[in-house]
Amino acid sequence: MIIGVTGGIASGKSTVARAFAALGAPWVDADDVAREVVEPGEPALEEIADRYSRAKESPVLNDDGTLNRRALREIVFADPAERRWLESVTHPRIRTRLLEHLARLEAEGAPYVLLVSPLLFESGQSKMTDRTLVIDVPEALQIERTAARDDVDEAQARAIVAAQMPRAERLARADDVLDNGGSEEAMRRRVSELDRRYRQLTSHRPETC
Ligand code: ADP
């Protein structure tokens, strides 16, 4: 069983994932996998390098052969068609790799696994999951925690939050919600509760072959 975990910036996705892992349910981070598929030697990076090799003034590869993310970001920000092309190259590979990682964790004996993704709904990755868990915090607290954790001021944190999926929309799509507006202790209690429920659900699932 795959539980998709999402939430806005600094809602507590990583903190919650660690709390589940402490109870025995591991996670795969979609952002890590998105970086993995464009590492040197990966076919997606070769395709990107081939397509943009003419952009000499702003090469998409660094001298050491790694992806120049800033250069690529500038290209796709300026042109929606290029963005779609990039997604057509990376998304299927991210999906395959995510499923491989998740299957490996399940084969290693995990009772269920978490797919942690900031863009779970926007990217369509929620379709790979059996249930979705939204980590929810009031926006004011989200802004406060972003500014405290990252090197951004309150206005920048506010702008990042405003650019993300609205809280109400995310909540409307959730199967389960974890209110992370309280203490870490309260968060851990809710994680235990959800863990019990997920274990129960997996034990009642029909065997597939
Ligand atoms: P995300 O992965 O969603 O961006 P994090 O898990 O990194 O969010 O949490 C953002 C910040 O908020 C971190 O500094 C984390 O320690 C803190 N945090 C998370 N949950 C709580 C909580 N319940 N109480 C206090 N601080 C929290």
Give a topology summary.
Layout: E1 2-6, H1 13-22, E2 27-29, H2 30-36, H3 43-51, H4 69-78, H5 80-107, E3 113-116, E4 131-136, H6 139-149, H7 154-163, H8 167-173, E5 176-179, H9 184-203
Give a verbal description of the structure.
The chain is 54% helix and 11% strand. By secondary structure, it is an alpha/beta fold. Helix 2 (30-36) crosses helix 5 (80-107) and helix 4 (69-78) crosses helix 5 (80-107). The model has no long low-confidence stretch (mean pLDDT 94). The chain binds adenosine-5'-diphosphate (ADP). Adenosine-5'-diphosphate is lined by residues 7, 9-15, 145, 149, 180, 183-184, 187.
Keywords:
single chain, 209 residues, alpha/beta, Rossmann fold, globular, binds adenosine-5'-diphosphate
Count of helical regions: 9
Could you name the ranges where pLDDT drops below 50 across 5 or more consecutive residues? none
Distance between the termini: 14 Å
The CATH topology turns out to be Rossmann fold
Topology, number of strands: 5
User: How many discrete structural domains?
Assistant: 1
Helicity range of the residues? 40-55%
Taking all Cα atoms into account, the compactness measure Rg is 19 Å
- Alpha-beta content class: alpha/beta
Q: How can the largest sheet be summarized?
A: 5 strands, parallel
Short description:
The protein is built from 9 helices and 5 strands; from the N terminus they run E-H-E-H-H-H-H-E-E-H-H-H-E-H. By secondary structure, it is an alpha/beta fold. A 5-stranded parallel β-sheet has the order 2-3-1-4-5, with helices on both faces.
